[in-house]
Amino acid sequence: MKIENLKGFDIVGNIAILKFSRNMKGKEKKKIAEKLLKKNPTIKTVLEKTGKFKGRLRKQQTKHLLGIKTKEALYRENECVFRFNVDKTYFSPRLSNERKEIASKIKKSSKVLVMFAGVAPYSIVIAKKSKAKVYSAEINKEASKYAKLNVELNKLKDNVQIIQGDIRKTVKKILAHSRSQINKKISKQNYLLNKNYVESRAGRRLGVISNRVSDNERAIKGGVIVRGTLVPHEFDFIVMPRPQLKESFLKEAFSLSKKNTVVFYYDFCKEEEIPSVKKKINEEAKKSKKKIKILNVKKAGEIAPYKFRVRIDFKVL
Q1: 45 in Cβ contact with 69 (< 8 Å)
Q2: Residue range 144-191, pLDDT digits in tens
Q3: I need a labelling partner for 25 at 20 to 30 A (CA). Which of 6, 143, 149, 302 fits?
């Protein structure tokens, strides 16, 4: 649909969000809104976009133009349904194919972490398509509220767990628990080691020492309760549809990775800047004492002239 003086629009289920040129008058905007409602019976509300998505919570500003006065959308994609407030939460219908593509790469029974999960579109599509166990982390309380609702709407309570809060604090809690579990194991094993050494021959001591390694590994593979949810210490897949922020959050991703973990990392850059993004990933991997292999680089949409949302898939070796 092409309309003169319309800079862009998104249709999100029952809501159309229009972006007009600055010089357009109110009457012209209303006429366009009327035309849109007549041509698209599924659209019940027309909003005007008055501010960009901004901040860590990725909120935008809109105002009502025509139709039912609501900012709550009911949207369907990839055989899933989502409800959310378009001003208070972030959602992009343009990433529908991205979500489907990533879901196709996830193996059944995998443990998946989705950072910056919003109202859980990635989490729910992944769980629906792959039957994996998905942990959906989001800092925005309003988005987390809708995420829980969307999990219920899609009947995925057994597959998707919502973690509300700052992912950095969540990771710290998981790692602290992991270390404490290891220390407890070591203390117990040292006691048993000394006891066995006294009570039996020295040769049996080696058996206890070798067991200590496997016990520690089992401790690391455990989990920690975060806001009522048992969260693993490690994941098979980590999805990072991050907003435009200075922090990469790669440190947190590497902290929860293991051998063969696949990470889907999103960044924003010009085409000639892609090598710099790859370099940043490799540098963060070295800092975390990890080795990686970059599997794929994809331009996942143009967000401004000559600037792209780029997805880099890499595996931890």
Answers
A1: yes
A2: 999 999 999 999 999 999 999 999 998 888 877 665 554 554 454 444
A3: 302
Partners of 164 in the β-ladder:
138
| Tokens (6 digits) for 251 | 């440190």
Share of the chain above pLDDT 90, in %: 67
Structure-token pair, residue 258: 């293991």
Q: Which of 4, 173, 140, 146 is nearest to 81 (CA)?
A: 146
Per-residue pLDDT tens over the stretch 56-112: 777 889 999 999 999 999 999 999 999 999 999 999 999 999 999 999 999 998 999
Domain 91-168+228-316 homologous superfamily, CATH: Vaccinia Virus protein VP39 (3.40.50.150)
Q: Above 80 in pLDDT, residue 311?
A: yes
Tell me the fold of 6-70.
GMP Synthetase; Chain A, domain 3 (3.30.300)
Residue 266 near residue 310 (C-beta atoms within 8 A) = yes
From the list 125, 247, 116, the residue with the least C-alpha distance to 170 is 116
**In this predicted structure, which of 55-64, 106-115, 226-235, 267-276 has the lowest mean pLDDT?**
226-235
Q: What is the pLDDT of residue 52?
A: 77
Q: What are the residue boundaries of the structural domains of the chain, listed by start? A: 6-70, 91-168+228-316, 173-221
Backbone φ and ψ for 261, nearest 5 degrees, come out as -65, 135
Cα(125)–Cα(132) distance, integer angstroms: 10
**Phi, psi at residue 216, to the nearest 5°?**
-65, -40
* CA 244 – CA 228 distance, rounded (Å): 30
Q: Do 264 and 238 contact (CB within 8 A), yes or no?
A: yes
**Residue-level length of the chain:** 317
Q: Return the SS3 of 245.
A: coil
